[in-house]
Amino acid sequence: MTTLLFVFISSLALALVLTPLVTTVALRCNLRQPTERCCHTRPLPRIGGVAMYLAFFLSLVFCLLLQTDISSLLYEDSRLAVIAVAATLIFCVGFWDDLRPLSPLVKLLAQLIAALITWLGGVQINVLSVSLTSGVELSWLSLPVTVFWIVLVVNAINFIDGLDGLAAGVSLFVSLIMLAICVITGKFLVALGFVALAGATLGFLRYNFNPASIFMGDSGSYFLGYIIASLSIFGSVKGQTTLAMLIPFIALGVPLFDALLAPMRRFVHGKNIFVADQGHLHHRLIKNGFSQRKTVLVLYGVTLLLGVVAFGLVIARDELAGFILLVLAATLFFAFRKLGYLHYFTVDKLYGWLRDMTEASGVSHDRRTFLDLQIQISTAQSLDEMWDLVGGALVRLDFDNATLLLSEALSKDQNTPKLTWHSKQQGHQIDATSAEEVNNNFTLKLTFPLVERTGRLYKRSPKSIGQDPVNSLGILILEKNIEKKQINHFTLRRVEQLRRIITRRLITAL
Known about the structure:
- By secondary structure, the chain is of the alpha+beta class.
- The chain folds into two domains: 2-339, no CATH class; 365-455 and 467-509, Beta-Lactamase, CATH 3.30.450.
- The chain is built from 18 helices and seven strands.
- The strands form two sheets. The protein has a five-stranded antiparallel β-sheet with strand order 5-4-3-7-6. A two-stranded antiparallel sheet has the order 1-2.
- Strand 4 and strand 5 form a beta hairpin.
- 39% of the residues are buried.
């Protein structure tokens, strides 16, 4: 315990000394830059990660000089060197981004490389739980699962670095909880890493808490995220009632939830999933009337509560552990509902997304049935047969009336230049006046010119661009009473498909 206390004090003292030095250097070199997710109006130094990086590794170097039983563990496992190399790589990428912003894809590639180095170095997730008492071997899936975990945690800490002291404080509580778990389970080598990280984040938090004088930047958030992710794998808790990754996953509940939801939220809103926005958890709390300081304290409390739950799972029996998880799940459900996150997972939205996917992929029954109608229309033996099939398609689309005005070239072999259809009397009609009238106040009327382009792109000269000669085949007019049933984008998509197939069939009739 003396060794752990020495590492903590060393890391804390180094962070307290190095952070103001880094701030001074940054101000003299004008390394100040505002951040999009930050609520500050004035630019501040963003290279605070340098102080935490140095405090973390220097405290472990000092620990080697003690020559105690615990410090000697640092010599015994070569995987620690792999973690140090990968941590330095991801720190350097974050530091470069703080000085000269990199593209999101470059940063993601660097994270993937660091995660791959970690896996190749033997720090791997090899087992996942299927219950509280058993698990399954991942085999070749160990690589993608390990890489995903590391990249997820790195970005989770980066995402919540939007308020003064938030990322550093959450990392501090997670480190302390993981430290306690490692101590009671006898994993003192991993405990050295978490105690050094706890001291570094606490010392940095002295200058980063509201009102902050320095930000950790991507160098700091990437470094914190990677160390937490890799050490949690390295010190996996494989007790009777818990699984290796369940403990750190619960302890990191706040940032992980935010990181998992952020790309989904941006995707639903039609935004670039790699571009920062104002929809993170701390932004929602601020929009609900919380101050910056109160928001940070609330998230500290949630992180500490989740950490206590994770700690309880380590020492609880199977039945009690299951009850704890059930209570936790219910609590989080009501909390997410209060914050409005369940808005993204309502039944109608999930059904809409599922319908979109099946429609776009062509696997839905309606889409395949409509495709069959399109094929029949394209192979119809006559225009009358084609129009009958079009009527069947319009029934599926809930249209009321349809009119096809044929061009002079096509109507010469027909009894009339106009074909009409009504939903209650399928088949073509010569006179539409007998059809039931649609209430004009609620009638949606769509008019489609059916044309054949006779020009060829590769034969045109630059002067003729935009002047393709066209042949008019006719006009398709559709009517729908939207009082009975609203139109949706599936209808519009299929109407366009219908227009195209009718046009192609009319071309063959010329």
